[in-house]
Amino acid sequence: MKAPVSWIREYVDLPAEVTTEDLTTRLTSLGLKLEAIESAGADITGPLVVGRVLTVEPEPQKNGKTINWCTVDVGAANGTGEPQGIVCGAHNFAPGDLVVVILPGGVLPGNFEISARKTYGHLSAGMICSARELGLGEDHDGIIVLPADAGEPGDDAFDVLGLREEVVEFEINPDRAYALSLRGIAREAALAYGVRFTDPTERDVPASNDAGYPVVIDDPDGCPVFVARRVSGFDPAAATPDWMAKRLQQAGMRPISLAVDVTNYVMLETGRPIHGYDAAKLQGPIRVRRAHEGERLTTLDGTERVLSAEDLVVTDDSGIIGLGGVMGGETTEMSATTTDILVEAAHWDARSMFRTGKRHRISSEAGKRNERGVDPVITPAAADRVVELLTTYGGGTVDPGVTVVGTPPDQPRITMSYDLPARVTGIDIDAATTVTNLEAVGCALTKEDTTLTATPPPWRPDLNDPFDLVEEVARIVGYDQVPSVLPRDAAGRGLTREQRLRRRVGRTLAGAGCVEVISFPFVGDAAFDTLGLPADDVRRRTVRLANPLSSEEPSYTTTLLPGLLKAAARNVGRGATGVALFETGTVAFPSESGPAPIYGVEWRPSEDELAKLFEALPAQPLHLAVVLAGERERSGWWGAGREADWSDAIAVVRRLAAELGVEVAVASATYQPWHPGRCAVFTVAGEELGHAGELHPKVAQAFGLPARSAAVEIDLDLLLRHARDVPPGPQFSTYPLAKEDVALVVADDVTAAEVEAALREGAGDLLESVRLFDVYTGDQVGEGRKSLAFALRFRAPDRTLTEEETAAARDAAVALAAERTGAVQR
Amino acid sequence: MKPEEVEAARDAALAAIAAAADLAELKQVRIDHTGDRSPLALANREIGALPPQARKEAGQRIGRARGAVNQALAARQEVLEAEHEERMLVEETVDVTLPTDRLPAGARHPLTTGSELIADIFVAMGWEVAEGPVIEAEWLNFDALNLGADHPARTMQDTFWTDPADDHLVLRTHTSPVQARTMLSTEPPIYVVCPGRVFRTDEYDATHSPVFHQVEGLAIDEGITMAHLKGTLDHFAAQMFGEGISTRFRPSYFPFTEPSAEVDLVCFVCRGATVVDGVTCRTCRGEGWIEWGGCGVVNPRVLTACGVDAERYTGFAFGMGIDRTLMFRHGIEDLRELFEGDIRFTTAFGSEL
Lengths: 826, 353
What we know:
The structure holds 2 protein chains of 2 kinds.
Chain A: E1 2-4, H1 5-10, H2 20-30, E2 33-39, E3 48-60, E4 66-73, E5 84-88, E6 98-102, E7 107-108, E8 112-113, E9 117-119, E10 122-124, E11 127-128, E12 145-146, H3 157-161, E13 166-171, H4 182-193, E14 215-217, E15 225-232, H5 242-250, H6 258-270, E16 275-278, E17 286-290, E18 296-298, E19 304-306, E20 312-316, E21 319-323, E22 327-328, E23 341-347, H7 350-359, H8 365-372, H9 379-394, E24 397-405, E25 414-417, H10 420-425, H11 431-440, E26 444-447, E27 451-455, H12 466-477, H13 497-511, E28 515-516, E29 522-523, H14 525-531, E30 543-544, E31 555-556, H15 561-573, E32 578-586, H16 607-615, E33 622-633, E34 642-643, H17 646-660, E35 665-668, E36 674-684, E37 687-695, H18 697-703, E38 710-715, H19 716-721, E39 738-747, H20 752-763, E40 767-776, E41 785-794, H21 803-821, E42 824-825
Parallel strand pairs in A: 14-17, 28-32
Antiparallel strand pairs in A: 1-13, 2-13, 3-4, 3-6, 4-5, 6-11, 6-12, 7-8, 9-10, 15-23, 15-24, 16-23, 17-20, 18-19, 20-21, 21-22, 25-27, 26-27, 29-31, 30-31, 32-33, 33-34, 33-38, 35-36, 36-37, 37-38, 39-41, 39-42, 40-41
Helix pairs in contact in A: 2-4, 5-6, 6-9, 7-8, 11-12, 13-17, 20-21
Chain B: H1 3-19, H2 23-34, H3 39-46, H4 52-91, H5 110-123, E1 128-129, E2 135-137, H6 138-141, E3 169-171, H7 176-185, E4 190-199, E5 211-221, H8 226-241, E6 247-254, E7 257-266, E8 275-276, E9 279-280, E10 289-298, H9 300-305, E11 314-321, H10 322-330, H11 337-340, H12 343-347
Parallel strand pairs in B: 1-4
Antiparallel strand pairs in B: 2-3, 4-5, 5-11, 6-7, 7-10, 8-9, 10-11
Helix pairs in contact in B: 1-2, 1-4, 2-4, 3-4
Domain B5 (chain A): 409-484
Binding site for Mg(2+) (chain A): 462, 468, 471-472
InterPro entries (chain A): aa-tRNA-synth_II/BPL/LPL (IPR045864), B3/B4_tRNA-bd (IPR005146), DNA-bd_dom_put_sf (IPR009061), Fdx_antiC-bd (IPR005121), Fdx_antiC-bd_sf (IPR036690), NA-bd_OB-fold (IPR012340), Phe-tRNA-ligase_IIc_bsu (IPR045060), Phe-tRNA-ligase_IIc_bsu_bact (IPR004532)
């Protein structure tokens, strides 16, 4: 909401010395948040004065131009009282005219400093200004010639030109709809300074009579008050007075025609939106009702709208002529020939206004006010003000008929104990202050011993609860009075298990050289296609958004990989030779349990109701994804580096599982977007944890990643659920270690994990560790076979092992491996 | 062997030992002069054949000679070993300024570590950290928070709805539904902070993002007032931005709080002075204050909807953007840097904030 300060001052006795900065600071501390202060002429420094042209001597120049050598009376402004000699290139003035002169020492917009200087053979001491030079517009046809009564030579021209006229813009919160008017802002200003407020809606309004335009309200809940006034013989060609046009512009509205401008002006002044009909186009009585589903109306923006049974409409015998309170219809619109105007000022149900505006996507100045709530009591006064302005500036007569149908809704009565403001704010606010402040905002009070009952003023539909009154009291006392006190110490339980584990996961991954990223969780089919997901892949069943930012990515993602692979590619594109990224984030899978219920808010929903609510939510597991692309270990003076491969991806999961003490089984799998021969599936206690391995070459290529890039995606919730909570302190032997290395030849399709498991089981309790240290394929083992070399380490808890014991354990291990996997010792 | 021959053999050995230039030469000298075929060893072997009296004398003489040789050998060995070691250490000198970055460093995202920092500040006060789903029921995101379907304030938050919209699911527009969930599931006293990811249909630019992060706080107890809210936020501000950085309240409007306030932070760069080195402070643009978030006393209607006895308990709530807070704290100029995933950005923050 933009408001010229001079307009605010019209309704409030602000001391002259109050600056705009001070005013806006105080209003901000009352709850009207300052957005900006605009000021025409803020970039002009005087002396800028009124001058009277005394002489004008045209002097043709060699370049074909003619300049004027002028003398100008600037009164005492130049310190001497002598006429000022000024060279001027414009010709639209004559001796005797009042002009605007900037004297040496002044500065014009663009930091243009004025000094006395020699030009065209004269000492030109200043400049006669055009509108453009003053930053007041683009008009450069000539200099400004002031009206003859504008002032006397030497007068300060800032005031004459309305420069220094400041316009303040406030952000108005939904609860302060009354401040969407000069009336409301001025009222707050009066409150801020404790000075008198003159209500622009306080006027003598003629009473309703039978001679007014017939109006029937079928839906008094939707439209409690409807006022109709009529002006006849209006001159449609009449111009909007300059002062009104200027104020409309300052408030951010475009002047259109006198009739429209007056309705807008009164809306800005009072907050009450007004609609004007071309009375000649009305047919029969006006009737306000709800629309029938599917009825149509072309609103005055030229859009045909299909109406809902909830929309409030204004009708006459021709049908619907307007979407009540939101936008008028085309058929009765005022035009350049309208001489009879029917003025509508009506009070509408705010909720209906909000719904209709939302349904038809109409956002208008009128709708903004009507949907937030307007003072219902001022409706007749606003209409009266409109007809006054119309006839004052557009001629014609106000018809004696006055229609006022309906009565304003009752105001609520709010009972509150006197000490509530102190109890809620922590400020020492006594009963007297509470009473004073509530009366200052316009509440009518009934006082009892310990409680008061407040009837809020009609312009405050936001005041309904005792806590609403507390805010009113507190904002006048001042929020700066709130003391700073820490609450009592709570016996908190610290972070939850999951929160601690998540930190541990992040630290482990960072320790493994991975860099965390956060991407947007939006995805589309294109990404799934690029990942090569089959048509029936569960990841293609997404939670779709009704209003996605981009139609390309209309869903909440089911996999973190697209975002992560894009981030990796971005890094590669920016020159990174090796990228290891991880992300932990929520993915979503649709719920089958139907729409989420909407409950009332008068009481807490039951446990069953809450259970139903929670069930309707999509499953939203926390995933972890990792991508490893390019150099995993850098090359350098120490030798060659190492490119990331499938094993790095699997290593990340193993490292994490070890950190969390979770037993994770690894097996090979075929799963997009991984390389079918280089993909591992992990399981925890029989449940699938996720996958890791080398990306399918097509996928790596499609995302612009180096060949052999590897990735991981696992269900982090599942991993964390199985994390070991209280690891037992380990017990280990300090007796000597016995080492046995064995090389076992197995068929190609036997996995290392299978052989290792057999060795482990066969070796028995004396085995401390087993580690595969070499894999060999080639002539020595034959086609279709491979040799796996394991280092077995034995140790007893209570003695030094003999060679026989160690050999026996080794042989048992090899024997079980042979039995289980067909392994042959080399 | 004659005594002078023994002495000659000993002297020859001592000379050879002294002349040995390195450990390899000394090893040869040892073989030559103390080995089985060395003169002194041979002489020693001959002792047995001597008559008993001569045997004793010869034994003593040869023994002394061999002892002297062995002593000299040991001494020389020590010297040569020391020399060798010294030379080795000199030869093995490296350029310690060579790069050592074999393994690239990892890092955690500042939004993660920043959220943890905030959580830790509150946990230290005995608060707990509450979390909830990002795809949330409309009732929890709006209605339970006094934002009914026709509340004009719903348009203050541009909401992502799931399809179809009558499923009544949204991408949560704030972390307030976590507060509602906490109240629905926990008896007061409640002291929780709720950091998390939130969504609004904002265009993506240097200061706006459709995906961003919020931390909200909720305290519900007997006798809670706005003064406790102020005290908590002053403490939070000082922990986040440094001692002496406090807050101020301006009246505002949020449906879930009444009274409501905007929270401003004393600019931690100019510390309220509005100018730095004679130039208008860039961080606060000369305001002396930075807009930080919103807060207020929990609207009793919210308490009622969430099953808290509004007669007995009062509460306060606050919320601020984590992204924005970190941008201020670390002088990050463009919000989008948080979501680009450029490793140069993230690694600059290490693994803790």
